[in-house]
Amino acid sequence: MKNSQKFLQMLGLTRRAGMLVTGEGLVLNAVRKNKAKLVILSEDCGQATLKKVTDKCNSYNVKLYVGFSKASLSEAVGQQRTVYAITDKGFSRRMCDLMDI
Predict the structure, then answer these.
(1) What is the pTM of this model?
(2) What is the pLDDT of residue 100?
(3) Cα 74 from chain centroid?
(4) What pLDDT is attached to residue 1?
(5) Strand, helix or coil at 67?
(6) In whole angstroms, what is the distance from residue 97 CA to residue 70 CA?
(7) How far is CA 13 from each of CA 8, 56, 88, rounded to the nearest angstrom?
(8) What does R_g of the chain's alpha carbons equal in angstroms?
(9) Given pLDDT bands bounded at 50, 70 and 90, which one contains residue 14?
(10) CA distances in angstroms from 24 to 40, 45, 50, 66, listed in the order given
(11) Measured over all CA atoms, what is the biggest interatomic distance in the chain, rounded to whole angstroms?
């Protein structure tokens, strides 16, 4: 559980550092342009969103983490979103280590 808290804190930190892309359209664009290093999707997202994001991440070989509720992710970032992309390699690596992705 401790790592979950650190993960959410890192998510907020990436936003403040300007290394976070939020919202489905912007995240899919970041994946297409090879800017996304890690995509985070809430576990309570819709089936269509899940399929779209999963397929895009698989075809562009981007790591995908599905976890946390939309509410807890939104609270960590300060924006109501379902999907997020980390664009910094260092933040991405650290967050992957925390959650064993």
Answers:
(1) 0.92
(2) 82
(3) 11
(4) 56
(5) coil
(6) 22
(7) 9, 25, 12
(8) 12
(9) very high
(10) 11, 11, 10, 14
(11) 34
In whole angstroms, give the CA distance from residue 48 to residue 53.
Answer: 9
Helix axes 2-16, 70-77, angle to 10 degrees: 50
Q: What is the pLDDT of residues 17-69, one digit of tens each?
A: 999 999 999 999 999 999 999 999 999 999 999 999 999 999 999 999 998 99
What are the φ/ψ torsions at residue 84 (nearest 5 degrees)?
A: -135, 150
Which amino acid type is present at position 54? T
Distance (Å, rounded) from C-alpha 60 to C-alpha 65? 15
CA atoms within 13 A on the CB side of 26: 13
Token pair 């910094």: residue? 88
Residues 81/23, Cβ–Cβ less than 8 Å: yes
> What pLDDT is attached to residue 98?
85
| Residue found under tokens 């509410």 | 71
Q: Is 82 helix (H, G, I), strand (E, B) or coil?
A: coil
